[in-house]
Amino acid sequence: MNRPLSVVIIANNASRHIGEVIGAARRVSDDIIVLDSGSEDNTPEIARDMGARVVFQDWLGYSATKNVGNSMAQHDMILSLDADEVLSEELIDHILIEDFNEETIYILDRANYYCGRRIRFCHWNPDRIPRIFDRRKARWQGEFVHEKLKFHTSYSQKLLKGKLLHYSYDSYAQRLRKVKDYAILSARDRFRKGKRTTLPAMIVLPFFKFWITYIIHLGILDGRAGLEIAWTDALGSWKRNRVLYDLQRNLTPECCK
Questions:
Q1: pLDDT tens across 17-39, in order?
Q2: What are residue 157's DSSP bridge partners?
Q3: DSSP structural state of residue 52
Q4: What is the dihedral of CA 160, 32, 5, 97, to 10 degrees?
Q5: Cis, bond preceding 44 (omega within 30 deg of 0)
Q6: Which of 26, 86, 132, 133 has the most CB atoms around it within 10 Å of its CB?
């Protein structure tokens, strides 16, 4: 690793995994920044104990919050992580020997876990995401949801060997809560962009969502986990369209009162 990396982590109530995340990240970086958006657990204390710089930052949305963290980094090359993403041994080894180029975007292969089990189907695999880049050449864009790394089309992309271990949900209740919260954010974002829905769409689309996840994306082969993911995908679709339907009728959704 000829060019040093800064690691930027966004976190909120992430005490379950943040120590492991930082522990792995310290093996590839001497500069780790944790942007904490109001954790009510001991996430900040754990991060400090692990040697990270903790910055308290109001939540601005995924893209804006990540960009704030990037601006605080000591190095131009950024490794962007969520607070439940752990670098595997193989990935660490390849990061350490990689000769990073400022006009290359580095892709990480994420292995997603649900309730301690690796998900091999649904729409969660493969999951290859841009996470290492020069902050002078790329930045996150998007409003409150759907952040995307923007960079010049002439830049090359390189997939690094090894897995980014993503411990996304530790329980069904956590998954259900996050899907509902994300659906509300997504509905508000769509409403601001002028998108609309209909009552038939609100009823029919969740069934299509379940079918796509469980059958088309072979969620059925992930057993009970696949069933729960497909079901919560359907619930998220319903919630998103329900909130959007109320917003476009100038009503305040029950969830938002």
A1: 999 999 999 999 999 999 999 99
A2: 105
A3: P
A4: -50
A5: no
A6: 133
